[in-house]
């Protein structure tokens, strides 16, 4: 999967059940913006609060209600649970799966390699996801290098935005041309593009999908100068949307009547102070 991929929020009703009517509205919103892909039930989709039956219902609903290519979030701190999520996705017709590094239990690099190799034994196409700020563990480029030998591991979403990390991953792309680097950080997407990223899994695309699509297309054309100018214009918005995500995204989507601003505990609505900051930035962008 390449291009502008939205890490879509999971809309919820006032009773905190999944709001499928609003989810359909979001699909139409992204179809109009020509979003290239949708990640279901990732971090932004409040994955940790959804039951297995809800996951299955969301996967099925998405397959039946949008033509946009789909990727299923299947991350867990348990390898066996991730495999169950993969089976659910495959049974619903979703082949591409995004697997974040197991969180909280902080496995070693050897443990991470074993975990991802086990996931790769499934029939899914696995995209690794490295975001140490949320998981407490960093999948090192050397470990990614070893995982290149697994044909079913087809890419990585990397959230570390240092030039050292980008450079090391770009060298791995030379070893395997069908392995895709995806940015996991909206503010530094253009820099990732310079190092060979072919797309982004974006939080900001929930709010400004047409902007992320435009930046993605420019990066693919290697027009980094124009892409950087647009990215700079939206930098404040990109950054504030990452604070307590998905709270800011749901706040703005509620403002434009796409969904109700409801999150499941332990997540709560953003503060009034943060809301005012978001309003000011959004109105001036």
Could you please describe the fold and organization of this structure?
This protein has a single domain (3-283), classed as Alpha-Beta Barrel (TIM Barrel). It has an eight-stranded parallel beta barrel with strand order 1-2-3-4-5-6-7-8, surrounded by five helices. The protein is globular, with a radius of gyration of 18 Å. Helix 4 runs parallel beside helix 6 and helix 11 (235-241) runs antiparallel to helix 13 (272-283). The protein is α/β, with parallel strands linked by helices and 285 residues long. The longest helix is centred in the first third of the chain and has 14 residues, at 20-33. The chain has helices spanning 20-33, 52-65, 79-91, 109-120, 132-135, 141-147, 163-175, 189-194, 209-220, 224-233, 235-241, 247-255, 272-283, and strands at 3-7, 37-40, 70-73, 96-100, 125-130, 153-158, 180-183, 199-202. It has 13 helices and eight strands. Strand 4 (96-100), helix 4 and strand 5 (125-130) form a beta-alpha-beta unit.
Q: What would CATH call the architecture?
A: Alpha-Beta Barrel
Just give the CATH class. Answer: Alpha Beta
Within CATH, the superfamily carries the name: Aldolase class I
* Low-confidence runs: none
Portion in helices: 40-55%
Tell me the series of helices and strands, N- to C-terminal.
EHEHEHEHEHHEHEHEHHHHH
The fold-level CATH name is TIM Barrel
Number of strands: 8
Concise structural overview:
The protein is of the alpha/beta class. It has one domain: Aldolase class I (TIM Barrel, Alpha-Beta Barrel).
């Amino acid at each position: 999967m390449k291009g502008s991929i939205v890490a879509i929020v999971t809309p919820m009703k006032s009773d905190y059940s999944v709001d499928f009517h609003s989810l359909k509205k979001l699909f139409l919103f992204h179809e109009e913006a020509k979003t290239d892909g949708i990640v279901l039930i990732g971090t932004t989709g409040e994955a940790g609060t959804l039951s297995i039956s809800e996951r299955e219902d969301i996967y099925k609903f998405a397959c039946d209600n949008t033509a946009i290519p789909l990727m299923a979030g299947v991350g867990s701190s348990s390898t066996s649970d991730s495999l169950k999520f993969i089976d659910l996705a495959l049974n619903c017709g979703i082949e591409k799966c995004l697997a974040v590094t197991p969180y909280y239990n902080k496995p070693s690099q050897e443990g991470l390699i074993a975990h991802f190799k086990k996931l790769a034994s499934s029939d899914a196409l696995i995209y690794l996801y490295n975001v140490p700020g949320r998981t407490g563990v960093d999948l090192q480029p050397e470990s990614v290098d070893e995982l290149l030998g697994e044909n079913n591991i087809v890419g990585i979403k990397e959230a570390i935005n240092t030039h050292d990390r980008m450079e090391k991953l770009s060298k791995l792309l030379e070893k395997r041309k069908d392995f895709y680097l995806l940015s996991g950080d909206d503010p530094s997407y253009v820099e990732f593009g310079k190092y060979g990223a072919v797309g982004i899994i974006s939080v900001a695309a929930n709010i400004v999908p047409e902007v992320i699509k435009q930046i993605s297309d420019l990066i693919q054309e290697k027009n980094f100068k124009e892409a950087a100018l647009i990215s700079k214009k939206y930098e404040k918005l990109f950054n504030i949307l990452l604070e307590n995500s998905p709270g800011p995204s749901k706040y703005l989507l509620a403002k434009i009547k796409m969904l109700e601003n409801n999150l499941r505990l332990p997540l709560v609505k953003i503060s009034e102070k943060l809301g005012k900051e978001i309003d000011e930035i959004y109105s001036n962008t």
